[in-house]
Design brief:
eight-stranded parallel sheet; 16 strands; globular; 11 helices; alpha/beta
Length: 396
């Protein structure tokens, strides 16, 4: 353990009584009641003291579904021109990303700085892997994170945005990405994009088992078609022993099928250890959040793409995003509002490979301070982030 420690003094973890959080080697090593009379300790040369001014303390936010490589953030405005379908947006992006230099080191770094300044300290980012960009986007994202100067957590999903089987060579690229250190490989609508759900999933699970990586599949297909693909994913997860390492992103179908069918899928997801991530879209079927939580199915929240060729929206504020999720779920009560913040922070540890991500001993010291009376007010007001610590290092 390093001799130099940091003490974040006089903060209210999750709105509780004032406390001092002691940090060493990037982790929380103690959370003690704040005693104003101890201010004399501020002269300790082996300790750095930060005055938390009685502010509300939250864990850093986990962006569990990002596309950090796609954005034109920081560039002049880019007008949207694609056809409003998944295939139309894929074609539009492929036609125009080159002229914008996407994936762009500058835009990715600028986007990340904006996201971290708003309290996001850990990311699972899908990064396009295809015959046009190869694996270059992964290096762009990793380099941008390294340039931040703080120990932001990052897990990469090598993402086949243009399909898997329908584009010969993509499977080999996914295999190369996994061999080179990508933590997950992705998939995309095995039925409607590749038109071969069994083939796509068998190929992805083969790579995941051989390379020891996770799987994170975009599943936009709705209704019974999407439910059928859920079943195929669950069956393969159980058969390959990948419990806890398979995620369904979006997964709209589970919000569309009949209640009995829905509950059966949720129970099977729990049995198989399959999680789900959402971006809280306003124009899609609502996820059954209460049922998923009650069953113990992990739910992650992410920004999706931000100001990219798929659409011009997004500022990346995780509190605003969590508030939208809460509104869509019909949340009103304080405990429901607090649950939305926990979903976006402490409950999301596993989405970035952590056993714990909270304001407790043993957790990475990712801490966000806001001026709010309590967690519900922080959610609905989304006040400025007064301080962001990433692994105990102040982000400026």
């Amino acid at each position: 353990m390093s001799d130099v420690q940091t003490v974040l003094r006089n903060v209210r973890p999750w709105g509780a009584a004032a406390a001092d959080i002691r940090i060493a080697d990037g982790a929380i090593v103690a959370v003690d009641p704040h005693r104003p009379g101890d201010d004399v300790l501020a002269g300790d040369p082996a300790t750095r003291f930060i005055d938390g001014r009685g502010l509300l303390a939250l864990p850093g936010f986990v962006n569990a579904h990002a596309h950090l490589d796609k954005s034109w953030w920081g560039r002049p405005w880019v007008s949207y021109g694609g056809v409003a379908t998944t295939q139309g947006r894929i074609e539009h992006e492929r036609a125009h990303r080159g002229e914008l230099g996407i994936p762009s080191p500058q835009s990715t770094a600028a986007l990340l700085r904006a996201l971290v300044s708003q309290g996001a300290t850990a990311f699972r980012s899908h990064v396009d892997v295809d015959l046009g960009v190869g694996l270059d986007g992964i290096g762009v994202v990793r380099d941008a994170v390294a340039s931040l100067g703080v120990p932001v957590a990052l897990e990469i999903v090598a993402f086949p945005q243009d399909g898997v089987l329908r584009r010969p060579g993509v499977l080999d690229l996914l295999d190369q990405a996994a061999a080179a250190g990508a933590e997950h490989i992705g998939g995309l609508d095995p039925a409607s994009i590749d038109r071969d759900p069994v083939g796509q999933l068998d190929a992805l699970f083969d790579i995941a088992v051989r390379r020891g990586v996770g799987i994170d599949i975009h599943l936009h297909d709705g209704g019974e078609l999407g439910a059928f693909e859920y079943e195929l994913i669950i069956e393969r997860t159980l058969a390959t022993g990948l419990a806890g390492r398979v995620n369904v992103a979006h997964g709209f179908a589970i919000g569309e099928v009949a209640p009995a069918r829905q509950q059966g899928l949720i129970e099977r997801m729990r049995e198989a250890g399959v999680s789900i991530t959402t971006v809280a879209p306003i124009n899609a079927p609502r996820l059954p959040l209460d049922a998923l939580r009650a069953a113990g199915v992990p739910v992650g929240l992410g920004t999706d793409g931000i100001r990219d060729l798929w659409g011009p929206f997004g500022d990346g504020d995780p509190l605003r995003l969590a508030a939208r999720l809460a509104q869509l779920a019909g949340a009103r009560r304080d405990e429901e509002l607090t649950a939305a913040v926990r979903l976006a922070t402490s409950d999301a540890a596993a989405f970035v490979g952590r056993a714990v991500h909270d304001l407790v001993v043993g957790s990475p010291a990712d801490i966000v301070l806001v001026d709010a009376e309590n967690v519900p007010e922080a959610l609905v007001a989304a006040p400025p982030r007064e301080l962001v610590l990433v692994g105990g290092v102040e982000f400026a």
